[in-house]
Each structure stands twice: as structure tokens, then as C-alpha cells.
Amino acid sequence: MYSLLLAIIYVAFVSLGLPDSLVGAGWPVMHRDLDVPVAFAGIVTTIIAGGTILSSLASERLTRRFGAGLVTAVSVGLTAAALGGFSVSGSFWLLCLWAVPYGLGAGAVDAALNNYVALHYAARHMNWLHSFWGLGASISPFIMSWAITSGLGWSSAYRVIGLVQAVLTVVLIVSLPLWGKVNPVAPPRQAGPADAEPPGRGSTHVPLAQALRIPGVVLVLVAFSAYCALESTSILWASTYLVADRGVAPATAAAFASLFLLGITAGRFLAGFFADRAGDRYLIRGGFAAVAVGVVLLVLPVRTDALALVGLVVAGLGCAPIYPAIIHSTPVNFGRDNSQAVIGIQMAAAYTGSTLAPPAFGVLSAWAGMWTFPLFLAVLVVLGLLMSERLNRLVAHRARAAQLADRP
């Protein structure tokens, strides 16, 4: 049961990554076919992000009522329907309409699936699963490229990936009996709060206001939002910074900017081999430290561009374990009974940071110059590291207090 369901979840994470790169990969052709300005891509992605944030916040209530398996299956089915809608959209307003279920499906499944893995599987699987997400996100641009170059059109790429999602929906529905038969993984020794049974169908709902009042939740939300802002800003603006400020050739800058994302994917795969021994706390701390080294290499005033290019790769490798480790540590930091509510809020914070930070830096760079790119990243690194370290101290203090209370 354990291995079969884990294999299905791995396939689900690949499938989750597939739609995430489609809009960006196909938009240069899509906006011409739809006869809208290129800037309208921001409208579509904002609608998707808005739906994702809303469904992330609602995921805790849905998962407690219906279970993680059913929420995952329905959410993937909703995404499949949205992709099918994209494939037949001949106008921009239809695209915006289908962007609503596109985002709603993505947020609910992300929160439900991440919480289920955090509760039932070891840290190594969380890293490897997110590596598989990166694999899916890397594959979809090639599918879009194939669809365009073969003359089938961008709609065919959405159709193909929509069919993949539909098949996965069927697999998930068939696998529903397995989801309640996998025992939760034992929490590590340094767990802070006393862990209740993992939340399931029918258990008590944790309202948003109550979840936000849990000590440390605001800290992890700021840290997670800062990390996701760092990642999304780097993906969007790194190549432009290398060309505009460092004078790197556009082709070289594009190659190394892609290596940043590949570094995240490869880094998560490698981190899985030592995640259980290192622990989530050290993965987060080490990840932020590595990103800081990469940012320093980016900004060093040397004649050669080699250090800046290497710095981008190092930053990508540093980013790799942070997201999975923050998610996986949630049941330990806040208790199993609160984990679904907290992870739902974390997903909302993640999408908020990812959505707002890149345009915010665009405004900053237009006013002050592209040289502020490493400075912007450095602020996010410091913010994320400080908040995560404050959370670590809070959890450690709570654990010591619990030990003292248990003494006779």
C-alpha cells in the first residue's frame, strides 16, 4: 500500500508541474493568435494566482471533510478541465474564464498533497517529490515547442497535458481506498508541540484566524513568502540582470538563467539522499546560506563574468531544499492537527510572494536600475533566514517547556 500510493503521488507531482510553465512558454504565439498585447499575460497569470490563493486557504476545510485523496483527485480533474478549456479558447476572455478553475485546482491539490506527504512520508520523499515537480515544469515547454513547430498550434499542447491530467484523475479515483491505509511517519525527536492524530475526514476545522494565532505561524509565513519571492524574481529577472548590468551575452545569460531552475530540480534530488539525516531545520538554514553565497558571487566587482554565472547556479542549488523542508517541518512545528490549516496558509503566502515580488522588482529596477537585483535578493535571503531562525528558537523553547512539564 505504502509503495503503490507513493508511486502514484510521484506521478501526481510530475503532473502538477506540467501546467505551470505552459502559459509562459506559449504566450509569444498565443497573444498574437488571440490578438491581445503581450502584457496581457499578466492578467491571465494573476487570475490563476488569485484562484490558487483562494483554494489554498479553503483546502484545510475541504481536506478535513472529504479527505486528501478525493480533494487531490477532484482538483486534478478541475485542472484537466481548465486545460481542455484553454485548448478550445479562441478569445482572450474565454482564456480568462478558464483561468479560474486552472488556479482553483492548482491551489487545493498543492496544499492537500503537500500536507499528506508531510504527515505520512519521510523528508527525503518531500525533496524528491518536489524534484519531480520541477521535472514536470521543465517538460511542458518542450511539449509547447513541439506543438508549435509541428504546426499543430499552441492549443495542442494544452490538449495533450489536459489528457495527461485526465488520466491521472482516473488513477487517483481508483486509488482512493489506499489513502487511508498509510500510517503517518513518526515525528522526529525534536518535535515541538504534542502531535495529535493526523487530520482526516470529519475532524475539527481550524479557522483561518485561529491558525494565524498559533505561535510561530506568522514567522513561517514571512519566511516562506520571502523564499518564494526570491525564487520567482530570480527566474524572471536573472537573465535580464546578467545582460543589462554585467554585459553577459544574451544567449549565455539565458542558458545560465535556465540552469538556476535546473539547479533547483537537481538540488532537490540530491538533497533527498541526506534529508532524513540532516533534518529540515539544517536544510533550510544551509539553503539560505548557499543562496547568500550565490548572491555575493553575483555582485562581486571583478572583470570576469564567470563568478556571476557560477553564483546564479549556486543560488539555484541553495534554493533547492528550502521549500520542501519548510513544508515537511510543518507538522513538527505546529502539530499534526494544525498542519493542513497551516500548510494551506503557507501555500497562499507562497503564491502571494511569487506573484507580487517580480513586478515589484520591475518597478524598483525601472526607478533605481538593474544593479539592485542582487540587493533585492539579499534582502529576501536575510528576511527568510531571520524568520526561520526565530521560528527554530520558538519551537526549541516550546519543546524544552514541554519536557519540563512532563517531569515528575
Question: What do these coordinates show?
Answer:
The protein folds into 2 domains: 2-177, MFS general substrate transporter like domains (Growth Hormone, Chain: A), CATH 1.20.1250.20; 208-406, MFS general substrate transporter like domains (Growth Hormone, Chain: A, Up-down Bundle). It has 408 residues and is mainly α. 79% of the residues lie in helices and 0% in strands. It has helices spanning 2-17, 22-33, 41-66, 68-87, 92-120, 123-149, 154-174, 208-212, 217-244, 250-271, 275-278, 280-299, 306-319, 322-328, 330-334, 336-368, 373-406. The protein is globular and about 70 Å long. It contains 17 helices and no strands. The chain starts with a helix and ends with a helix.
